[in-house]
Amino acid sequence: MHRRSFLYHTGLFTGASLLFQKSALATMLNPFDYKIRMLRNNVGIFTERGGTIGFLLSPEGTLVIDAQFEDTAPHLIAEVQKRNTAPIKFLLNTHHHGDHTSGNIAFKGIAEHVVAHQNSLINQKNVAEKANKVDKQLYPDQTFDKDLKLKLGKEKITGYYFGPGHTNGDAIYHFEDANIMHVGDLMFNKRHPFVDRSAGANMRSWIGDLERLQKKGGKDTIYIFGHSLNEGEETGSAEDLKKFADYLDKVLQFAETEFKKGVSKEDFIKNTSIPGVTEWSGQGIERPLTAAYEEISSK
Ligand SMILES: [Zn+2]
Ligand SMILES: [Zn+2]
Predict the structure, then answer these.
(1) Do 95 and 23 fall into the same domain?
(2) Number of domains in the chain
(3) Per residue in 66-79, pLDDT tens?
(4) Are 192 and 288 in contact (CB under 8 A)?
(5) Which residues surround ligand 1, an ion (CB under 5 A)?
């Protein structure tokens, strides 16, 4: 039976049907499943598939952080252009992974500059060359090492690099006036993270990055996270970063204990839980387990 006729026949008419009509209307108005949420001072986020995109709209131009995929980036571009007629001045990448930079190509001829950490550019080139996808890339034309300073309208944007974490090229971008920090994939909210050892990731150093990030911000800082298990939790506070640092520490401790007991990597990564971890769930637990075991055993 069709949902609609089921609703009519069971007499759940008002509430449920109204809800159904509302979601049907939403699908009609927005055939793609993306969401935009403004945070403050004209800084907002865009979510569809891949890493959370951050953006700033100002009369002097638009700045975008990360680009998701080639087929989702045009949705973001259309939305920011609807809201701001000034040109897209900057596209910043938090790191090279495809769910953050595959959409760069959609900014070709649109964004005036593409910026990333110097290691992110090296990684992006390496991966693209291996995958034979060089023609699908738009590479950064500006890179930085320790820090970066940009100004757009009234907003000062600072880029930081704290050393290896999720990769060896994770940049953090801070909208100083709005007090919002995009931390990219240094934060997986309640979701097991990717740990890209092939691109220089290091979990112990990652914990240190998260500690520095908490100190950089204050009580009022809004952090934008690369990924979140639950929709709507793509932003949060220093408290969330602390929880994730604790999680990483527990994964490393677990690997160390089991490694010392002589447990093989093959057996270790079959674990389906991590002692003391309750808030991180979903798929992909083998990823941090594998990385932690490799990190511990190669010491
Ligand atoms: Zn990602
Ligand atoms: Zn990533």
Answers:
(1) no
(2) 2
(3) 999 999 999 999 99
(4) yes
(5) 51, 99, 185, 226
